[in-house]
Amino acid sequence: MKRFRSAARPAQAIAAVASLALLAGCAGSVGGDGSGSGDSAGEGFAYDASQDEIDEALADLDPVTIKFQPSAMSEKSILAPNGLDVKKAIEERSGGKITVDIVWGQAIASYADVDDALADGRVDLAFTLPSYTPAEYPAFDAIGTAMSTLPSSPVASDLAANAAGVQAAWETPEVLEEFEKKNLVPLIPMLAAGGYSTMCSKPMTSLDDWKGKQVRVGSAAAGKQVTDLGATPVSLSFPETYEALQRGTVDCDLGQLAPNVEAGTFEVAPNIGVASDAGIARSAGAITAGKKYAELPVAYQQVIFDSMSTTFSTMMEVVIGAKAQAVEQAKDNDGSVKPFDDDVQKQMAKYAKTLSDKTAEKAGVTDAPKTLGTAGTEWAKSVSELGYDDKGDFASLDEWYPEDASYDKLGDELFEKVMAEHRPE
């Protein structure tokens, strides 16, 4: 498949990280019967079809416009490629018959409302955060929590964990049922994005450092892990975090590095703590489609679904490239980048396993952590075979991470091995 990339992308590896819809078609596929909008469903086309063959399949279909709400706040955001690259992939593969109208900054629906917006047609395609409502997505949350048990490294482990998360979500029926109950079509049922780090006003690497600290967290699972380490979790919206760190209301933020690069967090919290083994439960997202997608002709559904390879690889380029920027910004602000001490890492790993098992049992998906772990091992091998190894440690990531990093090959392999069987037909 031809790949697409946004033309305007800053140097340091990307400046800046579905009512009527049912899981239908052939077994395991997504989308509707392709009979909507008064258009003929047509014959569809193969994933590896030439552009001429795709154009022929779409020739008699009326042009359509879909509203896409990605994760970025604006076209200038560090996360903007997550919207721009997908738009380009869909529009070019459709020969211009599908126009993608990007809606920045959750302008139509917040993360709390986006599921409803997809189901009622206000939004057609969106990055969503099921992890924000674990009671509604318990199986999804179980896999996100289990990610804390996977190995951690700047590049290779994040790539393997994300690919494993996609595979585990597709292979866990309960996860797909959670989307179906909300009349949503999962296109990528889990995007774990980047691993979590601490960003603190002062270094926090030892167990003693954690004792009594106020740590801003973004999920209940992360809060439990923080408590186990002796710190106090603080629930605080992300826009409030910079000022809280500046005033000393909280000592650290615990989360992904990409949004903090954009927020300037390292001006007030330049000390980064990273896991070298097991990590923190992730607030994972997903790419989901809604009512209009389910009513589109099958060939249009295929065009959109096929762009998920680009979606995956672009997300990885954004979040990992942002890590390198975070390291650079931390150093520029006289900060440090250090792994957690061994005693912290051991306690973190032990509790991660306990929390993962409890969360999976409560969700009724006791096999999910094992499914994820097996997939993680397999994808770690694939990542290495593709040459995506770590070339150094986290602290020197800004020095060795390539400016032209591309994960297209991994996105293609993930699509072919995992996602292709769910392609609309």
From TrEMBL:
Matches recorded under InterPro entries: DctP_fam, TRAP_DctP_sf
UniProt cross-references to SUPFAM superfamilies, sorted A to Z: Periplasmic binding protein-like II (SSF53850)
Signal peptide: 1-24
Keywords of the record: Signal
The keyword Protein biosynthesis appears for this protein: no
Swiss-Prot/TrEMBL GO biological process terms: transmembrane transport
Record-linked Pfam families: DctP
PANTHER family reported in the protein's UniProt record: BLL6794 PROTEIN, PTHR33376
Name of the protein in its database record: C4-dicarboxylate ABC transporter substrate-binding protein
Organism expressing this protein natively: Brevibacterium sediminis
